[in-house]
Amino acid sequence: MILADVYINIPIKSISQAYSYIVPDNLSFLAEGWRVIVPFGGRSIEGFIVSVKNVDESSIKGDFKLREIKGTLDEEAWFPHQIIEAARWMADFYLCSVGEMMRLFIPGKSGVHIQVAYEATPNVENNVLLQVQAYRAVYDAVKISGAAKKTDIKEQLVADGNEEIAAVLDNILEKLLQYRAIKRVYNADNKAKAAFETVYVTARLVTEELLSDFSRKPAQKKALQLIMNQQNQQRLGEAIFTGEAFKAQGVSAATLKALVEADVLRKEKRRVYRNSYDAPSLKHKEIELTIEQNKAVDALKEAINDKIYKEFLLYGVTGSGKTQVYIEAAKKVRDLGRRVVVLVPEIALTGQVVQDFKSYFEEDIIVIHSRLSISERNDAILRVRRGEAGIIIGARSALFTPADDIGLIIMDEEQDNSYKQDESPRYHARVVAEKLAEIYGAPLLLGSATPSLETYHRAQIGKCTMLQLPNRIGNKPLPQVACVDMRQELKKGRRNIISHPLRLLIEDTISKGEQMIIMLNRRGFATFVMCRSCGEVIKCPQCTMPLVYHKDKRLMCHHCDITVPVPDVCPKCESRYIKYFGSGTEKLEQELRTLVPQARVIRMDRDTTTGKFGHTNIIDRFRNKEFDILLGTQMVAKGHDIPNVTAVGIISADSALNMPDFHAAERVFMLITQTAGRAGRGDIPGKVIVQSYSPEHNAVQSGIKQDYQAFYEEEMKLRESLFYPPFCRIVKLIVHNEKQEEARQQAQNIKDNFLNKFGYTNHHQIIGPAPAMIPVFKGVHRFSMLIKTDDLKAVNQFLRDQGVHRDMNVMIDIDPITTF
Length: 820
Hints:
By secondary structure, the chain is an alpha/beta fold. It is built from 25 helices and 33 strands.
């Protein structure tokens, strides 16, 4: 008997082990890595095979009956062995199930609602079974339909006058499956549906003799002449045309129908692979690398050739040519026939990186990110598996493309928080990339103008090789940065969001026909709505966080994604004195239009970038000089290279300093440095104004000077004295329960057990429990604790021993982005 160990694709903590299933004789080819359909409870569900073994039936003990695997989802194993190995490691590190990690490598991650369909196997025209009329009729019905459900096949047979065959369809389908003339496929509702197009295929060779037979039918003869020309050019016996191709040559549908009826053409449906990024790109210009770029490329090529895992930090100022280094390294990897993964933190940056790479690797690229449909992502993955593309570009989900031979992983803007997933499993792409690169024997290249302190520290102590690009391309100067103390502005009676110096910079920039980026670290029209009579702030009914006002008269919770109308009176005291406080991108946009009415302003934030190309469309229009000012949140701060942008304004950059989080200063420094770096990339030097209420803070001062080393040295002193990363690892626990006291008590029990295990030492510390930043979410009370440790393995083992990793009431976050 053959048994398979299968992880079920259900993201529930209580279903974390593999289940054993019998591999039936007709599926004896199954091995590690296949996605299968298995019975689970009273339904069929998707599962992942992680091992297959032969066992003696008599050795199976217990009062249970093993069930059989029902079928497969794919034509081959979905998961390479390396990915299963990575999933096992990730599950151990992040304290979750292997199945939960494996589902990350599937477009959409979700389980499937299965519908069985049938698809014709290509190139089986001589199959002995198809010489029988009934089997041929069913085969042709399947082929015409592409991927057809049984009901569709029956309808096609009846429409063709084959009612008797339709009556015994089940038996015929099984026989066709047995002879592999057709295959069974499992489609998911609204997920990964294959796309097909109608094509016309020559049923016989078009010759001069055949053309003469159609001499009195000029329209049909014209179509045949087109077909013969293609046959001669490609030296193929079979020519394939789409209906659109014929139409473009002036061949009508009626003519095609006549040729099909004359058995000259066959009408078929063939699969097409969707690609939203298939637009042609401009060819690259010949570029001479700088000395520093050449040094970086040479170091990378050595590791690429040796096929060894090695971590590199490409530390280069903004505009120093990091992308060109990525491209040169990718060239070497593709020359060796291996795959490249290129990660960007924001979907907003995908378009520009794709454009840069496509100028060198026209057809060799796929793009993966969450704004693409599941079917598009599935098609992209299939292109990689078929060897049609070798460079995978996208946001963090692109890292989970099941490629079989990765030779280089690139993480652009490696410091960005977007690489951390904020829902289970709460992985960080950098940690996963390290493990995948190690498994595949590939270099990991981390690029940034402002590396995370953890990564820079690794480079300082020799765990990561640093490659430096200290100068901008062409030795262009870094922008001049000035700071406006908003406290002084207020003393002068200026209460606008935009300071007087920034307004002058805007007017000067626009008057010269140049462009400008303004970054505000908020979204919405006003931060919150408050009653001036009693001080009540209008809060979300589900999580109690303040609701954000939008100028279309909506109050929105950006945590729960719910919308409520703006009240006419205060819900607490019934006063009508309700006022909007704070500033958001919408309100700033309105103020800009008032202060600088001649400026053409476009806004980029989550509200204006819906759709797969929302970000790209805005950037392209701005790049084409349709607008003077690009206004946005943090997504305008990184990566964009627009030569005509000569000025940048940064508003409320230091607001994060007030957050109770050890990352706060680092985020402020990075935001100032990265946003300032958008200016002066063309021939005109850039100017930047930073508006701040804390201009004396080290993060602001270092950001203004664009002095990473000064910020790093000062911040590391604080981190070390307070035992924060990189001198420790952090685990955040959030205990939740509908009953407040039960949540608090469970959190306290975990803390007591932790102290009993580790005691009060400098190596293991625990803070809390305390109410979480969002203390109540959808009626559930939440308490937070932080564990700081220099031995993460020991802490993880403690949490396993306590059963915390399987407790539905405890959320575990290793290396959290926020600690509150």
